[in-house]
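Notes taken during the Thursday session

The instructor put the following on the board and asked us to keep it in front of us for the whole hour. The protein is DUF1758 domain-containing protein. We were told not to look anything up and to reason only from what is written here. First, the residues (270 in total):
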Amino acid sequence: MLWDPKLDCLTYKVKISNKVNFSKRDVLSEIARLYDPLGLIGPIVTKAKIFIQELWKIKLDWSEQLPPDAMEEWMNFYQKLAKVNNFKIPRCILLPATIRIEIHGFSDASERAYAAVVYIKCFNESGQSQTRLLCSKSRVVPLKTLTIPRLELFAALLLSRLVKKVVPILQLSIHKIWMWTDSTIALAWIKTEPHKLKTFVSNRVAEIQALSKNYHWKHVSSKNNPADLISRGCNVDELLKNEMWFSGPDLQTDEYEDNQLFPDPSYMCF
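Then, after some discussion, the predicted structure tokens were revealed:
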């Protein structure tokens, strides 16, 4: 990651080799070069993490060449990595004369990974608003099988921890913090007293509630959830075309209302 002082934006400088044969060691070495501490290209890094996990599943030796199917998948991903250099991400996150600031965090999970992404939204005296990507984080799912609702809960916990770290670093006066998930089950758990839930869920809900005590948890549709992209992972071309990832979704007023109905958590035992 680099800073372009002329454009005042963050950029990347990725070089790819001309190799045509890769071992597991080679793949790990190339992926380690994707220096992305803020997770601004998180969906690309997630796809790389998922691929590494697949290599572990087939139990390759460190110096063993990738099998044909894995090699084809890797080359399709790797040969496009140089396009990461086309990203130019504005460094400035506030509008001039900003009078109100909100934090919007999103979480999501797939069968391959779970993730969280955080945005800052500001409003100025003229009524203009602007949303900018702050950071993201993802985790590949454990090899032990877990249900999607539990993975969605993992994602919500990851988001809670991430927002708790981000807010003090900003040193800004935040008006409201919104936490969004597209899982009605996870949201119902979060809004339930922990002692009413099974131990596995209860422990995580208790931590989420402690971390996000003054935050506003809400449901968002999957199409408006940018965390969906990072939970699945994508290649460079897909991310270059995805405007919502860097600028956040266009949430309508009714999505902020407290009129949503959720399942009764007392009988949910996922």
